[in-house]
Structures are given as C-alpha cells and as structure tokens.
TrEMBL record:
This is YwhD family protein. Pfam families: YwhD (PF08741). InterPro entries: YwhD. It comes from the Bacteria.
Amino acid sequence: MVEKKKTVHFNIIKNDPLDGHKGYNPGVLNLENMTPIFIDVAEQEAFIDIGAMHAKSKVEKGLRFVPNIEELPNPKWYWLVWVTVERNENGPFYYGVTACDLATDREARRGYKIFPDHVNKMDKSLKGHFIVDHMDEPSKKTLAEFLKKQEGGLWENSSDELKKKLGVE
C-alpha cells in the first residue's frame, strides 16, 4: 500500500478572519490587499499577474525552477514586486513595496528564483517595508510610473520614503 504524503494547504483569507473572535487561528495572514507586479527588465514593461500569489503566473508557468542561475543558458530577467495597499484618513496608499528577482529561460524550460527570498519579501511588504534599493534604475522608474497610473489617489497618499526610494521626489 502506498502512503499518501500529507500536504499543507495555504488559504488566502478574505476580510478579517478574527473579527469578533480572539482564539482559533491567530496566525492567519490576510493577503487581500496585496498585488504582485512583474517588471520585464528587457522591455521595461510592468504588469499585474495575480497567479504569482501561488507561483502560477504566466511568467512562472511551465518552468522547473532551479537553484543555480548557470542552468539557464539565456536568462530573461524580471522583478516580482509585492505591493501592499492600506487605508488611512486620506484614503488608500501604498503601504509596502518589496522586489525580488526572477529569471526564466522558456527554451530550456527552466526558471531561477530564490524561494525563501520571495516569501520573505512578501512578508516584508505585508509589514509595510519598502525594499527596492537593489533594483536597477530603469526598473525603479517603470515601477514608479506604473504605481502613479493607478486610480484612487494611491500614489498621492503614499509616503515620501517610497517616492524617494523609487527616485521620484
């Protein structure tokens, strides 16, 4: 008889899972206000792909990820930027913005990313950090332009720290 492996399921919770109740499951994360944005480094195009929340974005699908970049003969580089939005008295604003790198090689059907880094940057975004210093300047500019175009006053309500880190003052 073959033993079935136990799998851990991760659920994205909508709304406040602890609303009116302080006990069971206090460590649940609410990812409702987070959006993954990809930046194609070569094309300097930014786009949203919600599939990245489960590592099933258009960029990632169909690839086997390897821990060594040398296994990709022709890497195409992307930034995966985790953007968290919160609301204050002025309205919605960009609360956390963190970026991690990712490379793909469609021909070799391989991809490269450091999984723990992606998880940690997602967590940092949820906690209101801005980690974009390691991005190249053109990609920072592309990200800033993309964030500015979003409706609802998000950019205008966001901190000067974010704008400074993205080179916009």
